[in-house]
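Folds abound. Consider this:
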Amino acid sequence: MTHLAREEFLAAMSHELRTPLNSILGFAQVLLSELDGPLNAGQREDVEAIESAGSYLSTLVREVLETSAENTAEFEAFGPLNFTAIANDAARLFGPEARKSRMEIEVRVAPDLPRVFGSTRATRQVLLNLVGNAVKHGAPGPIRIHAYCVGDVLELGVTNRSLTLLHPDDAPFDAFARGSDDSTSEGWGLGLAIASELAARMAGAIDMRSMMVGDHAETTFALLIPTKLGRRLGPSPNEASMPTRTHFVAAMSHELRAPL
C-alpha cells in the first residue's frame, strides 16, 4: 500500500466510523442527563461504561486511523502513565462480560510506583488485549489486574485461573497463529502480536508465565516497561511490527472490537 493510498484508506475509515460513534456517544450523554427519566445506580454505571467505551473508540479512530501506520512517531505521544486509571478503565469495560462468565475483575496497583513514561493509548490497548484474553480463555474465578515494580522494571499484568497450565506454544505471539489447540487459542496470536508491537514501541516486552496454585492453574500475561531511560527489554519496534496491509487492517479490526 502506497503512502497516499494508506492515507486515503485511513481517512475513509475514520469518516465512516465517526457517524455511528457520535450517535452512540450522543445517546449515552442524553441518558446520563436523565432527560428521558431518572437512572438507578446500576443503570447509570452501565451507561457510563458505554460512554467510556465510546470515548475510547473515538480516541482510537482519531489517533490510529487518521495516521499512517508507518509514521508511529506522529501518534505515539509519550508522557507519565497513570496505571490506576488505565487499570480501572479496563476493569470497567470488561466487567459485565467477565461477570457473565462467572469471573470478577480485581485491580491491585502498588501505591509507590515510580514515574514511568510511555504511551497511554498503547498501554491501554495492551491491557485491554490481555484482559480480553483472560475473559475469553480463562476459567471461572478472579481476574487480577496488577501493577508493581521489580527492580527497574514495572509490570502491568493480568492473572486469571486457566483451564490448564499454558506453555509459550499455547499462546503464540505471531500474528494470526492460533496456538496448539484452535478450539481454545482462537484469536490469541493477533492480540498478542499487537501487544508485543506496542510494548516494543515503549522499549518493553510481553511476559507470560503459568503455574499451579493449590488445585488450579493460574496464568499471567504482563506488559513489562523499563523505568530507566535507555534500557530495552525486548525486540525493537521494527522487529515486532506487522507491516503488511493485511496485518494492519486485521490489527485495526481487532483493536476496535474490544470497546465495541
